Amino acid sequence: MRITHEHVFDAAPDAVCAMLANREFASARGAASGARHPEVDVEGTADEGFTVAIRQGMPASTIPAEFRSFVGSEITVRYTEVWEPPQGEDRHGTFAVEIVGAPGHAAGSLSLVPEGAGSRFLVDGSVTVKVPLFGAMIEKAVGESVLKGLRAELAAADEWLAREA
After folding, report:
1. Distance set, CA 111 to CA 6, 78, 91 (Å)
2. Per-domain residue ranges for the chain?
3. Contact, 40 vs 150, CB < 8 A?
4. What is the CA radius of gyration of the chain?
5. pLDDT digits (tens, 9 = 90+) for 36-51
């Protein structure tokens, strides 16, 4: 299943990247998506390229009820984001989401490009679940959960940037 999302920030790409490369923000974004005690690792810098890794426990209530029997009462999610060094004002990266112990993942590309005084953030990826008969239904549920978490994280990002302005 393909997933896409666009978001416009009221900040230039360099300010958005500085936020994304900030360890405190990485913890805040994990909490915004409902994580319990996120473990965060940030390597590199916004100027040179960076990697953000977030491992978080989340209540199984974040996924549809019909699939909870597959994962138990809590799920562990590993999220990794890798941003390349700047190419002019544009930034590009990749992301991967893995639900530990579940037969599926999400992965794709990220872009951050100038738009007026702000920047446009683009997500383009896919969810793959290799389960006979139920794979497509689980892909849809995982895709919706990924997008719901992304929207919560982007709202936290907007709040962060507003405080920093």
Report:
1. 10, 21, 6
2. 2-164
3. no
4. 16
5. 778 999 999 999 999 9
Render pLDDT for 102-142 as a digit per residue (tens, 0 to 9). Answer: 777 899 999 999 999 999 999 999 988 877 776 677 778 77
H or E element: which one contains 151? helix 135-164
* d(C-alpha 95, C-alpha 121), whole Å: 13
Nearest CA to 58 out of 66, 68, 46 is that of 68
Tell whether domain 2-164 is in CATH 3.40.50.2000. no
Number of Cβ within a 10 Å radius of residue 86: 17
d(C-alpha 118, C-alpha 86), whole Å: 16
- The residues, ordered by sequence, that sit 6+ positions from 152 with a Cβ below 8 Å of its Cβ are 32, 33, 34
